Amino acid sequence: MDIFMYWLSTLYMLGSRKQNLLLSHFGSAEAAFYASEEGYRAVPGFTEANMRIVRKNRDRALVQLGFDNLLGMGINYTHLGQADYPDLLAEIPDPPVGLFYLGEIPGGSLPRAAIIGSRRCSEYGLQTARRFGAALSRRGVVVVSGMARGIDSMAHRGAIDGEGFTMAVLGCGVDICYPPENRALRDDIAENGCVISEYPPGVNPHPSYFPARNRIISGLSQVLVVAEAGKKSGTLITVDQALEQGRDVMAVPGNITNKYSDGTNSLIKQGAEPACSHEDVMQMLGMVGKIEAKKFKESRPHIASDEKLVYDVLAFEPFTFDEIMLKTNSQHQTIQYILTMLEIKGYAKKLPGMRYVKI
Length: 359
Prior knowledge:
- By secondary structure, this protein is α/β, with parallel strands linked by helices.
- The chain has 3 domains: 1-69, no CATH class; 112-284, Rossmann fold, CATH 3.40.50.450; 305-358, Winged helix-like DNA-binding domain superfamily/Winged helix DNA-binding domain (Arc Repressor Mutant, subunit A, Orthogonal Bundle).
- Helices cover 43% and strands 14% of the residues.
- It has 17 helices and 12 strands.
- The protein has helices at residues 3-10, 16-26, 29-34, 37-41, 48-56, 60-72, 87-90, 123-138, 151-161, 183-191, 210-219, 235-244, 262-269, 278-284, 305-311, 321-328, 332-345, and strands at 76-79, 98-103, 112-117, 142-145, 166-169, 193-197, 223-228, 248-251, 273-274, 319-320, 348-351, 355-358.
- A 9-stranded mixed sheet has the order 1-2-6-5-4-3-7-8-9, sandwiched between helices.
- Helix 8 runs parallel beside helix 9 (151-161), helix 8 (123-138) crosses helix 14 and helix 15 (305-311) packs across helix 17 (332-345).
């Protein structure tokens, strides 16, 4: 492992463009570490402020200490040129010079799809992200997302449901859980893939880091699927980055009366491929007709015939208890019992206001 590449990765304040510029100009991270200030002044666009960052962080003993501490924290590190550095990511403009991660990076031969969306979303969006994540995961597709609240978290959770691999890309150090309520999810992701970042340990999340984080999400993936996004969602920035990287972009159609679907429906109007099921994503990945990479057991219990009558009425948009009674023409006690059983078996979810959705 190249300790000097690790050093270059810690200079995140420079930004990936300047980090890659130093690597290109000097030919190696080690040469950059030992270069004179005159040598740095010859680097095109390298400012005095940039030089202060280098000067402040060029202590060989401290670099070695930080590198050694990674192992004690359970954090792995890879960099450009290493066998475990993702090939797809290395192809993008200004790729991360290094990656810090918890868990294991899934093999590069596995197909990868990013499932992303807004933090503010509908129950339909949440359940769609989870179902897509689970279905793709069961078929050997690595699910990539950003572990943010909302759609991202459900995409990861779905991939874990499917017993496959998932990758979470953070806009902070991997030793920091953001959002904090996702600690259990982060641990599950690390056991079923990896939590990954270009930022070294100890770096707190900052709004300016997330656009850079998003280019890694799309860069790791062959296909980007937007599960749900409003008209002004930050998710659309990731779409632009994916297009610049030459990635395929898909969007899940949504209810035209739902403000949370304005962005996804607009993407489809602009030419994004509609993703109406996981099979559409698999077709985009060129996986249609191929044998599944791995067979997984169905973890949920069987639905009884009387339960199926209610389950078939449910949708990913919530229905009230009374609406379900009317649609099934059944008695109050019967519906209450069946809905409870569907919740226990993991086929339905109860929302505030006595509303229910299919999951």
